[in-house]
Write a structure and sequence with these properties.
The protein contains five helices and six strands. The protein is an alpha+beta fold. The longest helix is centred in the last third of the chain and has 16 residues. InterPro entries: Lon_prtase_N, Lon_prtase_N_sf, PUA-like_sf.
């Protein structure tokens, strides 16, 4: 018997970070059932990067850190598949997993919160805010500008950069596993400096 919350997992070849949107096409019975269950219970599901295996067929082995995906919209593709638009919410750490008869992986998890007492952006990371503003101007042209106060939030700034920069999935996964938003920004800054140098 465990008191840990449980979450169905959707292992993918991608990393979902908090606040980021992800479009999915659902066709396997186990995931169609999962979506129905999430809809009935008003809950999300976990997205984890695949460590070993594939997105379809035999259950893949997921990494131990992921992000809760909350369904924002759904519809049907021209091929008749279920399409979902989900958004990353909370990070979690997998404690143990079990596989249902359908092949759906269910995990006992612990939620992970940012550890910093203050998430206010530090002066040494101001360059990253300027970079993020420029990226958003390019990708969000014509959209509503984010609240200026968000750019002073180290966690929000770090997650938006993790979402939008051309990082490998392994690099994104490292950022996802960090509990300190300032350490996350420093890692991004060090990586950019290394690219320039």
């Amino acid at each position: 018997m465990t008191d840990a919350p449980s979450l169905p997992l959707f292992p993918l070849q991608t990393v979902l970070v908090p606040g980021a949107a992800l479009d999915l096409r659902i066709f396997e019975r186990r995931y169609l059932d999962m979506v129905g269950e999430c809809g009935r219970n008003g809950c999300g599901f976990g997205v984890c990067l695949i460590l070993e295996g594939n997105e379809t067929g035999t259950p893949a082995t997921p990494v131990a850190f992921g992000t809760e995906a909350v369904i924002e919209d759904f519809g049907n593709t021209p091929e008749g598949l279920l399409s979902l638009r989900v958004r990353g919410k909370r990070r979690f750490h997998v404690l143990r997993t079990r596989v249902r008869d359908t092949g759906l992986i269910v995990a006992d998890i612990e939620w992970r919160a940012d550890a910093a007492a203050s998430s206010r952006l530090r002066p040494e990371h101001a360059l990253l805010v300027e970079l993020l503003r420029r990226i958003l101007l390019q990708v969000d042209a014509g959209h509503i500008d984010p609240d200026p106060a968000l750019f002073e939030d180290a966690a929000w700034t770090g997650w938006r950069l993790a979402e939008l920069l051309p990082l490998s999935m392994q690099q994104r996964q490292v950022l996802l596993q960090l509990d300190d938003p300032h350490a996350r920004l420093q890692l991004l800054l060090d990586g950019i400096a290394a690219e320039i140098g």
